[in-house]
Design a protein that fits this description.
The protein is globular and about 60 Å long. It has 14 helices and 14 strands. β6 (about 210-215), α9 (about 220-230) and β7 form a beta-alpha-beta unit. The chain is an alpha/beta fold. The chain has 2 domains: about 45-250, 3-Layer(aba) Sandwich (Rossmann fold), CATH 3.40.50; about 260-390, Rossmann fold (3-Layer(aba) Sandwich), CATH 3.40.50.920. The longest helix is centred in the last third of the chain and has 16 residues, at about 280-295. The protein starts with about 45 loop residues before the first helix and ends with a helix. α3 (about 70-85) packs parallel to α9, α5 (about 125-135) packs parallel to α6 (about 155-160) and α12 (about 310-320) crosses α13.
Length: about 400
């Protein structure tokens, strides 16, 4: 029997809306203020900036751009994949009418219900069907409606999708789940509570045979998703749901791919290295701007993009230069991605470290409905961590 927790209660009226500190920044706050997505340097605010990315193909660099948000970029990538390869399928709960976040909007109309279709409410069934389709030569893109719902499918992903190629031995080229992508919205939005706020990427990063990818922006989402669909490994593609509409930038109109398992240095620096991915990238950017102004330091910012297998060489090269490392992620600190990055940096850069590696992450507790944002690293915590490693 499939069960699903659905929140349908109506919240009581708040007689003091200005006092809802959990959902807004405090008065006179200097650090913890809302991200200004219209000015952040992490997004391409002009067509020229978007097309200057050296990772783009020649066709994409010589083309045009459109200013879209993250869910529209996902939609554009899915449309191109479906249009260019008849083996691509798209399915999941409510996918045919556009999905909860509208990522698959209008795709069923264009490609028909044989290639874009709804499934029953069974995550185990969705993953199992996707694995079977991939093994028969298709390139299925399966959507799990929220990352919080993926756990019934965990057995299928870990014990089947991840092991198929290894188990096939000399027949690996003919027996694999290459082309399988499992998409899922993840992370907090400020009011998702227990069942709509989780970031389970570290669970999948322990599984050899799968890749785990998390984009930070619309342009990254389009290129990384197309790379994931073309990849011959199963890919867990986690989309930060709070960025679906918040992050808007110029995205190349032509199809393009971005490299998997390659980190991107977004800002060079010489005193501190910050490593992050997904939504916290914007928190880190705000924190380093304040820290550089107040402490007269220079901070290097790295986006992992692929969480597993991640780009160890790029991170260690940066830390050997700066001597200090901070890892920031939204998911819980215990056994998280930051623990693996910190251990790797300690092993590979020990003699160059000027301070212990810092982890700024979510607290080891469940997400509450009222105070969800207090679980997630904010600008003040990252700022304080920068000051701590500089003063050590």
């Amino acid at each position: 029997m499939i069960t699903r927790t659905v929140c349908r209660h109506r919240a009581p009226k708040n007689p003091h809306p200005a006092r809802r500190w959990y959902a807004s920044h405090p008065p006179k706050a200097r650090l913890n203020i809302p991200t200004d997505y219209s000015t952040t340097p992490l997004l391409h605010h002009t067509s020229k900036a978007a097309l200057s990315n050296k990772e783009l193909s020649t066709e994409a660099r010589n083309g045009t751009t459109s200013r879209i948000n993250l869910f529209q970029a996902i939609n554009a990538a899915l449309a191109h994949a479906l249009r260019s390869d008849q083996r691509v399928l798209l399915f999941g709960e409510d996918v045919a009418f556009g999905g909860v976040f509208r990522c698959s909007m209008n795709l069923a109309t264009e490609f028909g219900d044989e290639r874009v279709f709804n499934t029953p409410l069974s995550e185990q069934g969705i993953a199992g069907f996707a694995i079977g389709a991939a093994m028969e030569g298709m390139r299925p893109v399966a959507e799990i409606q929220f990352a919080d719902y993926v756990y019934p499918a965990f057995d299928q992903i870990v014990n089947e999708a991840a092991k198929v190629r290894y188990r096939a031995g000399v027949n690996a080229d003919a027996q694999s789940c290459g082309g399988l992508v499992i998409r899922m919205p993840s992370g907090g939005v400020g009011h998702g509570a227990l069942y709509h706020s989780q970031s389970p990427e570290s669970l999948f990063s322990h599984i050899p045979g799968v890749r785990v990818v998390i984009p930070r922006s619309p342009a990254q989402a389009k290129g990384l998703l197309l790379s994931s669909i073309a990849c011959n490994d199963p890919v867990i593609f986690m989309e930060p749901k709070i960025l679906y509409r918040a992050a808007v930038e110029h995205v190349p109109a032509e199809p393009y791919t971005l490299p998997l398992s390659k980190a991107e240095v977004l800002k060079e620096g010489k005193d501190v290295t910050i490593v992050s991915y997904g939504t916290p990238m914007y928190t880190c950017q705000s924190a380093l701007e304040a820290a550089e102004r107040d402490f007269k330091c220079s901070v290097e910012l790295i986006d992992l993009r692929t969480i597993y297998p991640w780009d160890r060489q790029a991170v260690m090269a940066s830390v050997r230069k700066t001597g200090r490392c901070i890892v920031v992620h939204e998911s819980m600190v215990n056994a998280g991605v930051g623990a693996e990055v910190a251990a790797t940096v300690q092993e590979g850069c020990f003699l160059r470290l000027e301070a212990p590696v810092q982890r700024v992450a979510g607290w080891s507790t469940h997400a509450g409905l009222a105070y969800e944002k207090f679980n997630i690293p904010d600008v003040a915590r990252v700022y304080d961590s920068i000051r701590a490693v500089l003063e050590f």
